[in-house]
């Protein structure tokens, strides 16, 4: 396939910033008719943001979008659909209670002359489209009766029903079986054959090389490179993806782990993770690396008593413990700083000092009665150590930036004087300054003898902060790396299963 | 208030506890606005009717709200925690029926009280188990138990009524502690104080706010969310039992239609008092003032011979008006 002329859709120097974060920094992306372009990048590279810009959900702060060479602006998702851009998401955005046909035509249903919905036409056209993609589905089946693979087919049918020229597929194979993936590939090839431009977002190298014609690599919201798949190797792509960013400096640490604090053996869950075993030492930072959905957070939430493991033992400071609830975990000395800061971490609506004191109310109160002076003192101590930026301790945490909210959540847990602190994506979506503060603080904590577990998808952070890294893939512990073996390439290979594929 | 203190880099080093003093916060509060409304209604009433400013008639007026307000205190905590109990009037009916049935066996006053409180607690526990144990939405559960509890009263009583309460029992609803100060008014004041302390001065109260603002975050902070909610349902049941004792004592009889539609008046009182219906904020003083506002309005309109139907229209308009006022004020200032 020769270079197929001009791109149907081009993004030029598109920038998108959120308070404290630059999600996209002057990135460019070209999509050609009849070609599949793979968008490659680590978590946080800006892939999801670009999908939202393309589908009209976010408006870029700078740069332009060119459709057939002419600049366009998408004020809404409808505008993007009207321009012929459709997205098939990771978790497909469809309506469980509607039928297949209704899902395909929702928002652009054919009308009768009276302006009513033309049901016979919907059924007929839905059947026709489903037939075209060889989808063995009855248009009148309620969507909730279908599996994920069939739902993807419905989403694709929906894309065809609007005659989309650009189809965005955001990790479409993440939840599919091998056979379903093969069927999806055939469909992608058919769409390509019809001259549609396809943006294919994936973490899996085998499928990128199998299906894509071109690639574009983003890293930390910046454009790194683009070209034809035929001209690169796996290793080159990996290097482009993980290439060290120079502006992040991690604190120096004396790595001298002490006695074992936490020993987890054969930890398993019916669906999320299987046979996880590790030992964590005092003063150590142990990282869990893996792709989104590898089961890392689930392991941590089980350790914190949110989800119930089906097998395995947990030993904390030499004592076997059964953790059934977060309050059990807290009294055993294990605390968890969740990834979903707004929902699980901070109590938005309550002031800073009340957030900090919440799990420590037993200490700051006397026979059940609050002592505000103690609460303020506690909050002041811990927020000061984290260099919290706020106007006062009585300020609603909801008014703080993401980074400062994270500092409040960490302060809340440190105030309980834990033995083990688990940080789940501690710097995701926070600004560089807060990131550095959190990193420096983690190093301090380890130096003071606290045992730290960090779940992170950011390779520089994993490399810069960890003593040891456990890599998880599909719920299993696939590698444990430290010292010289701890390289970005090794992390990516184990997480994506490249090594395993080659060995097989 | 600016988002963060970034303008001045030294600011974060001395984080003040609060920016505003107690006085400034008080002036800006919902409770102050409500108090102004209460005073306005009081003044308007005293101009509208020559019978209003009379110690005994004002004392009578307090019966318009004391019993409902007792339930409203517990309901306020439940709503702050993000749940609701619409079965409270049904609990009053069932508790009153249970006491009436017990009275037929000529039991003493202490036993009647225990029956009233016990029925309330059992009903509250039933709601609490359905909501926290089975994870059902409280609005649906308590609409169901609302009919269930009152339905039992109808089955037991039909078109009959229980009378024949012992002589000493009437004191709870008809007795006066001192001059015009009724027992109910004193109980209302004591309960207001207790609920104020529990909600605003104890760590239990703090967890109620945390749950209402973010139940997941509260769980992740080690709070036993289900247990706290269960206790709140128990308290609401118990307070409905207390209200049932006062009301039954005051009326001297029990019909199954007793306290009909009280759940709506209780919720109105709570919302008027500044409790966020979505949970997370509001205070007991707000509910106390709202109780007085509603009592004054009904009493004032009663003196002017306004029929009950019109009164409920007025209460509805008042509720919407008071809630819309701050929103209109901000919209107007933004123009």
TrEMBL record, chain A:
Localization terms from the record: Cell membrane
Cited SMART domains: AAA
Keywords: ATP-binding, Cell membrane, Membrane, Nucleotide-binding, Repeat, Sugar transport, Translocase, Transport
Gene3D superfamilies per record: P-loop containing nucleotide triphosphate hydrolases
Location, primary (coarse class): membrane
Membrane topology value: Peripheral membrane protein
MF annotations from Gene Ontology: ATP binding; ATP hydrolysis activity
Record domain ABC transporter: where: 9-245, 256-499
Organism superkingdom: Bacteria
One Gene Ontology cellular component annotation held by this UniProt entry: plasma membrane
Keyword presence, tRNA processing: no
Signal sequence residues: none
Protein's recorded name: Rhamnose ABC transporter ATP-binding protein
From TrEMBL, chain B:
Keyword Cytoplasm on entry: no
Keywords linked to the UniProt accession: Cell inner membrane, Cell membrane, Membrane, Transmembrane, Transmembrane helix, Transport
Gene Ontology terms: cellular component: plasma membrane
Alphabetical list of Pfam families matching this protein: BPD_transp_2
Coiled coil: none
UniProt cross-references to InterPro entries, sorted A to Z: ABC_transp_permease (IPR001851)
UniProt GO MF annotations: transmembrane transporter activity
Chief subcellular location: membrane
Membrane topology, as annotated: Multi-pass membrane protein
Transmembrane segments: 33-58, 70-95, 107-129, 136-156, 176-198, 230-252, 258-279, 286-303, 309-329
Subcellular location: Cell membrane
UniProt keyword annotation of DNA damage present: no
Domain of life, per lineage: Bacteria
Role this protein plays: Part of the ABC transporter complex LsrABCD involved in autoinducer 2 (AI-2) import. Probably responsible for the translocation of the substrate across the membrane.
Assembly and binders: The complex is composed of two ATP-binding proteins (LsrA), two transmembrane proteins (LsrC and LsrD) and a solute-binding protein (LsrB).
UniProt-recorded name of the protein: Autoinducer 2 import system permease protein LsrD
UniProt organism field: Wenxinia saemankumensis
